[in-house]
Structure formats: structure tokens, C-alpha cells
Amino acid sequence: MKSTNTSSDFSYYYSFFQNTFDHMTHKPNETQLPQQEQDQDAKPGVKTKGLKEIISSLLLIEEQEKSEKLEWDQDFEQDKLIFEQNHRKKTKAMLDYQSELKHFDEASDQSNRIRKRKSRAVTNAAIASIVAAESDTTSVAPLPATGSGATTGASAGPQRRLWVKTRSTDWWDKCNSNEFPEHEFKKAFRMGKDTFELICNELTSAVAKENTMLRDAVPVRQRVAVCIWRLATGEPLRLVSRRFGLGISTCHKLVLEVCSAIKNVLMPKYLQWPDDESIRMIKDEFGSISGIQNVVGSMYTTHIPIIAPKISVAAYFNKRHTERNQKTSYSITVQGVVDPRGVFTDVCIGWPGSMPDDQVLEKSALYQRASNGLLKDVWIVGSSGYPLMDWVLVPYTQPHLTWTQHAFNEKIGEIQRIGKDAFARLKGRWSCLQKRTEVKLQDLPVVLGACCVLHNICEMRNEEIDPELMIELMDDEMVPEVGLRSMIAMKARDSIAHNLLHHNHAGTSFLS
């Protein structure tokens, strides 16, 4: 743009000077000019020379501008050509790189496919050689015949796992035989053969597995036996593995699977709140035991020791057990309500061991049912660790009790003892509840629930527990901060105590 404007200006000035020059060089008639003008025109060559020099300078400037513009255009064209060449080179290099990368990926995929085919071929060859060697050196029991005939020959395929550590199953085979003594079986599994058979039949549909081409499934009876023996003895999984000839991880998996099946299949049948007819029978039995009417259950809370959890350690710290045993203790709670036979009708499992009994009660489903009016006009008897409420009957705890209050505490203690003895049999029968278990904290409620269900089955079937297995419970009772929650309940308790003494139902053992 600059060169163009300069050229235009030059043309303008050139025209101006050219016209001036022509005008000045035109000579009019000398006779018409004054004498003075003739004298001035006597020397015209001086002015003409100056104008020619200016015009020459302008022409030179024009030529210089033209040459500069031409040079600039040539440089621009050269730079543009170099840029286009570089762009083509970069584009070609990028396309070549993408092509090489694609070829590399294809070669890598092909190499992986070849390596996998070779690996499968080697594995198949090893399997074939092992199967051939086993067919020559060992006898393999065939699978049971199905359909109209049994499968034989090469079409039957391998009948056992390829890599199996040899473990002895002599102990379980002996226990599983019909000749095994009843008392020995009961000592090992805390129940008789008939009860064990009942449990196996009930759980068959939930725990049975089918055989595969590589191994036979563990039979239902053995699965149930692994779980019950583990719960009964509390032995480490490595000893369970030796007893039953199974892997440690397999035994752990079987225990959790069977406990889960017990919770899902047997708990709805063997651990439920009683119906109206059963409640009437329970009231009558408790009434005949203590003379206190409308009692439907005896409540107790115990602690189960656990390994210190990774989270919320303080919540599971059991201060009372730690102070008594001089050893740091962690636990979770199990709250249960039992009928006169010691059968659980309600359980609440898993709250941290630092919580007192009254707080555990408030967290339970039993408390929610009572709040909704489902326990109206009935009593559940608890220890002094529970508060006195419209549906919870507890002993007197204040000092300097009257004769009537002493007599009431004695009779209510008989009902309390039913619940405590039931928990003593629960922990004595299932020794895993007495020691810190290897089960993870999140799986522990299922295991404890299974123990309560198995306890109920044994109690219902009158499976007596070996006296040597009975233990003394050491669960400290803490009087709640607010022990009285209902004035109506306080008056009702006073009335019950007065009636017991008035009708000669109160004992006199507290006097001795």
C-alpha cells in the first residue's frame, strides 16, 4: 500500500511540473512584450535546467520504488514457497508415523494371539499327559449314571481336579458312618444324629452344589458338619481343614454359606415372636413359675469378644471386661428374649460393646414394636441394667428395701435366671462365642444369628447339653442413668409386689 500511494503522488507532481515547463518554454511574440520582460527572458536556460533536475530526481525515485516493490514481492513468494514445503514435509512425517504405529499395533496383536494359542496348546498337552498318567496309575471313581445309561470311555472326560493337595478325610468318614456312636457324635456336634439330619434336610436346597468336570462338589452333610463343628468347638480354620480334608479357604467359605442359609431358611421357622396362642401358653408357664401374671419373656444381654476392629475402636472397647480381666477387651452385644423353655423369641445382635444394656434395648426392633403398641398389657422381665417401662419389669434397686420389695425381687429373679441360663447354654454349646473369632466384623451378626437358631432347634428337640460345657456368664450390669421411665409402671410394680406377698406367692429365702 505504501508503494502504490507513492507512485500516485509522483505521477501527480510529474504532471504538474510538466505543464509548468511547457508553459514556461512557450515564447510569445517579442514585439508584444515590454522591454523589461524581454530582458528577463533573455536567459531562459537557467530555469529550464533546474526543472529538468527535479524531474530526473522524481523519475529516479519512481524507479527505486518499483525495484523495491518487485524485490519485496519476490521475497514474499520465496517465503510462501518455503512454508508450503515445510508444511508438506510435516504432514508426510505425521502420516508416516501413524502408519508405522498402526503396523506396530497389528503386529503386537498378532504376536499376542500367537502366544495365547501356544500357551493353550502347551496347557492342553500338559492336561492330556496328566490325565493319561492318572489313567495308568490310579483308578478314578466314575460319575453316577444319568438317564438310561452311564457315560463311559473317553467321552466321560476328567472326573477329578487336576491340582488337589491330598488331605485325609478319615475323621469325617468315621463320623459320617452309621456305626459311629451316638454319644461321640453328640460330643463333637452338640446334637444327636436325628437333629443333625433334620438340619441337613432343611438346608439341602440352599447349600447343595452340583459336580463339575474338574471336581466333585462337597456333599451337603459335610458342608453342614463343617459349619456346626466350627461353631461348636471354636477351633481355628486350620484344624477344621485337617478334620474334614478340605482347604482352609474352603472351610471358611462353607461356614459363612451355611450360616447365611440358616439365617434365611431356618430363622423364620425357629426364631420368631410367638403368636397369640403361644403367648397365652407362655404367660401361664411364667405365672406358674413366679406368680407374676402377663409375663411373655425373660430378657438378657451378653457380650461376645472380638478382635479390635480397624474402625470405631473406641465404640467396641469393653471397659468393664478390661478392668476385670486386666486385658484389653473389645466386644459386640447380643440381646435376647426367651420363653420359659429358654428358646429365643427375639434377638438383637451387633451393637458395640461400649453401649450399656438400656441403650442396646432402645436400638432394638423389640423397642420399636413396643413403641407401636404391640406389647401392650404384657411384661418382659429384665435385670437392673434395664429401665422400668410400661412393658419392661425390673427389680427394685434402691437401698433399704422393704420386705415386700425383697420378696418381689426374689420372684422376679427366678424369671431373670431363665434368660441368663439360656445364654449360658448358648455360649456353652457354641464355644466360638467364648473366644475372639476369625470372622470379620461385618459377617459376625450372621454367624451369631445362626448360633441362636441352632440353640433353639436343640432346645425344642430336648437336646441336653453336657454339664461340662456350661459356663458362668460374666456380664456386668450397669444401672441406667434414668431407671424410671413410667410412673404407671412404678405403680404397677408396687401392686404386683403387694399381691405376691398378699397371696403367699413370695418366698422367704431372702430372710435366711
From TrEMBL:
GO terms for cellular component: nucleus. Its cofactor is a divalent metal cation. Residues 300-456 form the DDE Tnp4 domain. GO terms for molecular function: hydrolase activity; metal ion binding; nuclease activity. It is found in: Nucleus. InterPro entries: HARBI1-like, HARBI1_dom. It comes from the Eukaryota. Keywords: Hydrolase, Metal-binding, Nuclease, Nucleus. Residues 25-47 are annotated as: Disordered. Belongs to the HARBI1 family. This is DDE Tnp4 domain-containing protein.
